[in-house]
Amino acid sequence: MAEAIDRHELWANLGMDLETHDVLCSVLPQAFGDVYLSQENRPEGMAFWDMVVADVHGIRPQELVDAQAEGRKVFGTFCTYVPDEVAIACNGIVTGLCGGSQFWVPEGEKYLPADMCPLIKASLGARMGKTCPFFRIADQIVGETTCDGKKKMYEIMAKDVPMHIMELPHQKRPKDVEYFADEIALFGKNVEEVTGVELTEENLHDAIVLINERRKALARVYETRKNADVIPISGTDALLMMQIAFFDDPARCTQMANSLADELEQRIADGVSVFPAGTKRILITGTPMAIPNWKLHHIVETSGAAIVCEENCTGTKFFTNLVDEGPTDFAGMYQALAERYMKINCACFTPNEARIDEVIQLAKDYHVDGVINTNLKFCTTFKTEAPALEKALEDAGIPVLDIETDYTDNDAEQLRTRVGAFIEMLG
Ligand code: BJ8
């Protein structure tokens, strides 16, 4: 990996806690090396994502700061329901902010109960502890009314940084979709205020096309993972591509994902697989895996199985379903956006049975041998859905393992034992 550029001046200008942040910077390369660089036969296209991670708090933050110097605004988000298109239409930049490291959790626990999901605690900890440049750069945070933990966390964060909250209905009746279309229009007003750029039917339509292209490119990569004989990319690598998609420039993400898909398609034609023939194929479903949460993928793929699909927000939920590009007037585009986003099957919705159907369908499409349903500790919505999902999978003849974990390594050995036994049982 190329030697990282010294970014201390950038971080100092962002008002970061340099001393504490240096500790994080010193552990990340080791973690990345252990998980990523130890893999064999990786696609050459992964070099791009390796390069981004090697300087994860440098390259993209510097780009964002440079864009701000030109007058552009940066919006930080935490959920796949927030429509990037609206901010991008007004020349805004969107960056995902979900915290995926235990490093930030203790700081978050100064403000939040310990029995709250680590993603929420890490996200607040990263902001309040001044140890993540993306949180320092964001001109405004866009929250959403999904789970209770996030809603309450936003109240605390809003005292520290400008915040716009999108009201998300929790059912999917036609009137809820209409309501969300109005909410997207309101977000448009907010984006105009923050950016000083008028939202027009033309720039909104252009942004819809841009983000659809990103969805298509990521979907192409996933499509190659459906091949029953050749597994052209590890799940660990595919996860990295998805995690970085949340904060990369959308056009570059599309370009890089498309060229990776070209390489993976060629690998399939040439019979080049990352795993030996007969390796058990696993689908992961459940809570999202924000960067640098690579824990479960690493355990599964170093225990003799391959992950071929992630049914979560750092997986299929991020790119499945395109926004209808037909409408070109505001009302039609807001409705089209609402319809696409409301198809995401998050456990915050009631009922959420479509997720069960989706998981079973994906298990078939990706030829999986077993499903691992994973839950971040204290995420009650996903945990409550687990028994119904698991029963449906068992009824469909698909073996399933239920895992609850957090960001620490305390349970790594126990997980390795359970995952190993599950894979053996599949054999
Ligand atoms: S659409 S999954 S990104 S809400 S894991 S913070 S739900 S307690 S992240 Fe999510 Fe949007 Fe849904 Fe996706 Fe709460 Fe659960 Fe924590 Fe979660």
Please describe what this structure looks like:
There is one protein chain. By secondary structure, the protein is α/β, with parallel strands linked by helices. Helices cover 53% and strands 10% of the residues. It has a four-stranded parallel beta sheet, with helices on both faces. Strands 6-5-7-8 form a four-stranded parallel beta sheet, sandwiched between helices. Helix 10 crosses helix 16. The relative contact order is 0.12. The site of Double cubane cluster has 20 residues, from helix 7, helix 9 and helix 18.
What are the SSEs and their pairings?
Elements: H1 8-13, H2 18-37, H3 46-54, H4 59-69, E1 74-77, H5 84-89, E2 93-96, H6 105-108, H7 118-128, H8 133-137, E3 140-144, H9 148-157, E4 163-166, H10 174-195, H11 201-224, H12 235-245, H13 250-270, E5 280-286, H14 295-301, E6 305-311, H15 316-319, H16 330-341, H17 353-365, E7 370-376, H18 380-395, E8 400-405, H19 412-426
Parallel strand pairs: 1-2, 1-3, 3-4, 5-6, 5-7, 7-8
Helix pairs in contact: 3-12, 7-9, 10-16, 11-13, 14-19, 17-18
Double cubane cluster binds at residues 79-81, 117, 119-120, 146-147, 149-150, 287-288, 313, 344, 346, 348, 376, 379, 381-382.
